Amino acid sequence: MRIQRSRPALGIWVQDLYTNGVIETAGRSGRIGNLAAAIEGGILRPADGIAVIHDRFRRFVVDALGVPGERVRTIRNWSHVAPPREIDVKKVRSALGWSSDVTIVLHAGNMGAKQGLSNVIDAARAADRLSAPIKFVLLGDGNQRESLQREADGSSRVEFIRPLPDAEYAAALRAADILLVNERPGLNESAVPSKLTSYYSSGRPVLAAVGVGSITAQEIESSAAGVVVPAGDPEALVQAAIQLRNRPGVSDTLGASGRAFAKRELSEQAAIEKFEDWLYWLMEARRANRRGTKGA
Question: What pLDDT shows up at residue 190?
Answer without folding.
Answer: 62
